[in-house]
Amino acid sequence: MRPHQRSTPNFNGNPGGTNAERKQRTRADSTGGQLPPAKRRNERGSPGMASLQSVCMPEEQNHDDMNWPLFGGPVAAGSISQPDIHPKLMEFLGERADIWKRPKKLKSLLEDIEEDHFDRWRSVGCQLCFVNNGVQAPDHQITRRTSAGSDKAKMILQWLDGLKLERFAGRYGRCSLCSETGKTGETCAELSAAAYFDTVDTEEYKAAWRTEIDSAKRPDGLCENKKVVRETIAALCGYDGQILGRGMARLVSEKYDIDLAVKEQATQWFEQQVEYRQNWIPQILLVFDLLVASFDLLHDRGTKRPMDSEIVNAPESEADEADDYTRDEVKKWKAIADGWKGKCSFCAGRDLSEEQIKHTLRNCNRGGKLQLAKGLGEAIYKEGFRALGGCEDCAMPRELCQAWSKQGNRWKKVPGTQCQYGTQAYDTAIGFYYSDIKYKIRLAEAMADDEDKYDAGDEEDVAAWLGQEFITETGVQSSEIMRQLAEWTQMSKKR
């Protein structure tokens, strides 16, 4: 991500200001008024079916009394579903671990971790359901399920949560897990915040970004990948008779002379740091890579992502024709709007599958509906920060809205006719905005050129900026929200 020097955002979603101040900033009359400068405030397939009998159900169980060894005894010659995998698995684990000792090859491997491993395992929901049944389960987590390997997975996760791992590596803000994994900041909120902290040009903005970074009190900081790594390790070490957990234990014993059956040795080894260039990488990232790569080997998956065939998109025939930004933007916007009918951008932004986003934001029971009541939704629907270019009711260009007709050089509302898109554009923007911080960050980059008027951390300013009018090269009146929806839709396709 290329950071911008820009005004200081506050991603806590508190627009601030009195009601009177807000009303003074409400959009200008759509018949020709100009929007005044906003007030600034500081304020992702399918692995083999390991166990068809595995059923996820709620469970109340206390795993405080953990039984060691967590990673099983010596690896047997076979497993429940892969009787011939043991020699091949051990050979693969050894070769993979050797890569971590070769900096040149490790660089490429680390990029794969970010581009495939983080993205894929963050999107599956309950990792244990995924490894057991090959299906995404976004509505629950390992800690509340019973399925093959769940008891052991939950005990491993509880132990992993208690490890003492450094938040930063090398310097302040540098995420210890993600800082060496390729495209800095695109999948880690910690690195994104640190990038702004390093590049802002005033002490005031630097102090504000330090406050944002320091506000995360949990050990993981702002990074969401650390939780994903721990849950994935627990699931992979717990499923299928612990074949991967036992395989890793044997590898560590033979290669590092560490006995993972002994809690103290396991804790010390997992908390170690692997030297890399002038920095270091946490050992737990090595464990994550070994297990994910081995899982892919067992299921002949290579590095193919489970959602490659389930990408959220506008109708392909239209969207592909319009992918080039130099072509008619209006045609592209129509394809995108048609593609989002009956789909939820909040779930899409969280990388759920195509099947799992087939509902609107207003009918989303995974938290999407609740986002409408937050600051951006309030600014749009209650404070009146609507699109100033095109139809203010649906935010689409009037050329695409059936509620408008052009008579000569003037547009007029068609009596008794409603916009066929309703509030879809606004809802889609709100869903994306709150789904993942990477969408907020991309928006902040787009707003950087207008930092003297709009604060990307102020949700009223965001709504006002999205409503800004502009004229396309073909003379069509539109608003920034259409371009931003196109950008966010493209981001959601790259999973």
UniProtKB/TrEMBL annotation:
Positions with biased composition (Low complexity): 8-19
Disordered: annotated span: 1-51
Highest taxon above the source species: Eukaryota
Stated name of the protein: Uncharacterized protein
Lineage summary: Eukaryota, Fungi, Dikarya, Ascomycota, Pezizomycotina
